[in-house]
Amino acid sequence: MKEKFQFSEGLPRFGEMRRGTQVFVFADEQAAAVYDDYSFYPDAQARRWQLEVYSKSSGRRLDRVCTHRGRFKSREDALAEIDRFRYRGRDLVFCLVPVDFSYDKIAYLWRDVPEESGRAAYDEQLAEARRRLYAITDRDPSGEIDLRRRNIGGDAVKAFCNDDIAIDRGLFPFALVSGISLLYVSGDRSRWEYERSLLCEKFRGEYDSYDGLAPAFVYDAYYDIGVYGDIAFKKAGRSLARVR
């Protein structure tokens, strides 16, 4: 569809726009999407939608052409505003930009991953761990993520590497939380659906908040032992902090 239209080089680069953006132009008085970074995300939502309008020929942004300054509480209202230009918008480009965009990351990241059971190979655990890190941090992890192979040190990682349960069940540690809690991928693939199900289960309360829940190995320095259980974590810059 994009090749059928001529665009000014002064327009914003579509691929560099905010996640969840759609770009529309009119063809035969019908709005056509020439760039779509919205439809791929399941259960996509936003706090509000910003409609930006540009001249197709000059690339200049046109202010004050939309009602409500181009700010809409629902995507449907923003699409209706675009449709209002169907008879006079041939030289216009409409960028529908979400503000505070969110989507079902679990469904998105694992949409093509088959559910299986049985013992997982190392490469399968590695791929699963990378997806979980992306779900937690919203960043594509780079470099070594197996904590057993990284030069981290510390009693928590050492205790995990020597823990009988971790060894027997083939647990793969991929994230260190608050220095003493290790998030892991089970060696049994039948456990994965549960382990990933609450990674993006955000909670915002008056006195407490967290970004997700995950099973973890928690090191108790006083007794020099590790215990297993679900923990709540929160993103703190490029690190993770345990909330409870």
Spans where pLDDT lies below 50 across 5 or more residues: none
Number of helices: 6
Helix content: 10-25%
Sketch the topology as an H/E string, one letter per element: EEEEHEHHHHEEHEEEEE
- Name the strands of the widest sheet in spatial order: 2-1-5-3-4
Described by the principal axes of the CA atoms, the overall outline is elongated
Count of β-strands: 12
Strand content: 25-35%
Report the sheet with the most strands, covering strand number, pairing sense and barrel closure: 5 strands, antiparallel
- Average pLDDT reading: 94
* Helix-and-strand structural type: alpha+beta
Q: Could you tell me how far the N terminus lies from the C terminus, measured between alpha carbons in angstroms?
A: 50 Å
Integer-rounded radius of gyration: 23 Å
Q: What would you say about this model in short?
A:
By secondary structure, the protein is α+β, with helices and mostly antiparallel strands. It is built from six helices and twelve strands. The protein has helices at 75-83, 105-109, 122-137, 155-161, 164-168, 192-197; strands spanning 22-27, 30-36, 48-55, 71-72, 92-99, 172-177, 181-185, 203-204, 209-210, 212-220, 225-236, 239-242.
